[in-house]
C-alpha cells in the first residue's frame, strides 16, 4: 500500500524533500501558504543564490558581542529591532551561549560533510528535471577591500581544509586582471572552489514545475492552521485555515519562520526568530556594458552578496544581504535597501550603468 506524505512549505527544503519522497514511492502533497505563482518569490527564491557549502554558521566566536554593538546601527549587517519581547530575549541569550569555538567545531563536523552531500543531491534533481537556472559550480569569492583583512579571510579558508574544502588566495593584480568588474581599491580575494551559484527564483520555479511529473500535488493558498495529533501523540495530518482536514502517514514541516508555531503543537520547540533580508536586481544594458563578475561573491567588509545571473531576457546582477531581526510584517527599512548599493559600489565598477529591475524583501529562519 502506497504511503502518503504531506510537506508543509514550498521553499527549497520543502520542494526538494517532496522530490525525494516521491522518488521513494510516497504519494506526496505540498502545501504552500502563498499562491503557486509566488513560490519563487519566497526567501528560497529571493536569496543571493550562493550555494556556499562549508560556510561557517552565524554562531561563531564573537558574533553575539558584535551583534550587540550593531544593534545601535540601523545599517549594520545584522540589526535587531529593539523591542520588549521575552522570546527575542531568550533567543538572543541562546544565540550568545552558542557563539563559542566548541560549538563552531561541533557544528562544522556536521555541516562540512553535509555541504557536499546536499549540493550533490540538488545536482541530481537539476539534472533529472532539466532545470535551467544558470547553475555554475565554480565556487565563490570572498572579496576583501582592506589589506589588513586578507589574513583573517585566509585563516578562515584554511580552517576549512580539514573538512575537504579547497581554496586559493588571489592577489590584487591577478584579481583585477581576471575580473575587471572590480575597482582598483580592492586588496584581493579568497576563492572557495567547491561551491556554486544560480538564479534561485528559476531553481524554485523549475522544481515546482517538475514535481507533478512525479505525481506530486502542489497546492497554493493552502495555509496550515494546526497539526492533527493522534491519541499516541503522533502527527497524523493537518488542518487548513480553510477548514479542510488532510491525513497522511508522515508530515514534514518545512515552513520556514512559521515552523516554530506549528511544531509547538506537536510538543517540539524550535528557538527561531524571523530574519528579513533584502535584494536589488539589476539588468545589464546591451550597449556600453560594464564588466560582469565572473562568479558569485561576498564583499568581505560590507557583507553584501553579489551574484551574476543569466536569464531568458539577458544578463542580470543581484545584490543581496543584511539580516534584520524584527516583527513579521514591519515596514521596510529603506536605509537597509540603500546599504546594498552603497556596499556594492565600494568594490564594483559600473553599477550606475545598470537598469534597476526589482527590490525584494523576505524572511528566513
What does this structure look like?
- With 365 residues, this protein is of the alpha/beta class.
- It contains 10 helices and 18 strands.
- Strands 4, 5, 6, 7, 14, 15, 16, 17 and 18 form a 9-stranded mixed sheet that branches.
CATH architecture of the largest domain: 2-Layer Sandwich
- Residue share in helices? 25-40%
Overall shape: it is globular
Total discrete domains: 2
Largest sheet: 9 strands, mixed
Give the CA-CA distance, first to last residue: 36 Å
Strand content: 25-35%
In brief, what are we looking at here?
The protein has 10 helices and 18 strands.
Write the layout of secondary structure elements.
Elements: E1 4-8, H1 12-23, E2 27-31, H2 43-46, E3 50-51, H3 63-70, E4 78-80, H4 86-97, H5 101-129, E5 140-144, H6 150-159, E6 167-171, H7 172-178, E7 188-192, E8 196-197, H8 200-210, E9 217-219, E10 224-229, E11 235-240, E12 245-247, E13 250-253, H9 259-265, E14 275-283, E15 296-299, E16 304-311, E17 314-325, H10 334-345, E18 355-364
Parallel strand pairs: 1-2, 1-13, 2-9, 4-17, 5-15
Antiparallel strand pairs: 3-8, 5-7, 6-7, 10-11, 11-12, 14-17, 14-18, 15-16, 16-17
Amino acid at each position: 500500500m502506497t504511503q502518503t506524505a504531506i510537506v508543509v512549505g514550498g521553499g527549497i527544503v520543502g520542494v526538494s524533500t517532496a522530490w525525494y519522497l516521491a522518488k521513494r514511492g510516497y504519494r506526496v502533497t505540498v502545501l504552500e501558504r502563498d499562491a503557486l505563482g509566488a513560490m519563487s518569490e519566497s526567501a528560497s527564491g529571493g536569496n543571493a543564490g550562493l550555494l556556499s557549502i562549508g560556510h561557517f554558521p552565524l554562531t561563531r566566536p564573537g558574533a553575539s558581542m558584535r551583534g550587540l554593538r550593531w544593534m545601535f546601527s540601523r545599517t549594520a549587517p545584522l540589526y535587531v529591532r529593539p523591542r520588549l519581547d521575552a522570546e527575542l530575549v531568550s533567543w538572543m541569550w541562546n544565540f550568545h551561549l552558542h557563539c563559542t569555538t566548541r560549538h563552531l567545531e561541533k557544528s562544522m563536523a556536521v555541516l562540512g560533510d553535509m555541504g557536499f552531500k546536499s549540493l550533490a543531491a540538488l545536482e541530481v534533481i537539476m539534472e533529472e528535471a532539466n532545470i535551467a537556472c544558470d547553475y555554475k559550480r565554480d565556487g565563490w569569492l570572498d572579496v576583501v577591500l582592506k589589506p589588513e583583512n586578507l589574513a583573517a579571510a585566509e585563516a578562515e579558508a584554511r580552517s576549512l581544509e580539514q573538512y575537504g574544502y579547497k581554496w586559493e588566495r588571489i592577489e590584487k593584480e591577478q584579481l583585477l586582471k581576471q575580473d575587471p568588474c572590480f575597482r582598483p581599491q580592492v586588496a584581493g580575494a579568497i576563492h572557495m572552489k567547491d561551491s556554486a551559484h544560480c538564479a534561485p527564483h528559476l531553481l524554485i520555479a523549475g522544481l515546482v514545475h517538475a514535481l507533478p511529473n512525479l505525481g506530486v500535488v502542489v497546492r497554493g493558498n493552502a495555509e496550515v492552521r494546526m497539526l492533527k495529533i493522534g491519541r499516541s501523540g503522533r502527527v497524523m495530518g493537518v488542518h487548513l485555515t480553510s477548514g479542510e482536514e488532510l491525513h497522511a502517514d508522515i508530515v514534514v514541516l518545512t515552513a520556514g519562520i512559521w515552523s516554530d508555531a506549528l511544531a509547538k503543537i506537536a510538543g517540539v520547540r524550535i528557538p527561531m526568530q524571523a530574519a528579513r533580508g533584502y535584494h536589488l536586481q539589476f539588468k545589464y544594458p546591451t550597449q556600453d556594458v560594464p564588466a560582469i563578475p565572473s562568479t558569485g561573491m561576498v564583499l568581505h567588509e560590507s557583507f553584501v552578496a553579489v551574484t551574476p545571473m543569466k536569464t531568458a531576457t539577458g544578463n542580470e546582477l543581484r545584490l543581496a544581504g543584511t539580516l534584520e531581526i524584527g516583527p513579521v510584517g514591519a515596514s521596510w527599512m529603506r536605509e537597509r535597501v540603500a546599504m546594498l548599493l552603497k556596499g556594492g559600489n565600494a568594490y564594483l565598477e559600473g553599477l550606475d550603468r545598470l537598469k534597476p529591475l526589482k527590490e525584494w524583501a523576505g524572511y528566513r529562519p
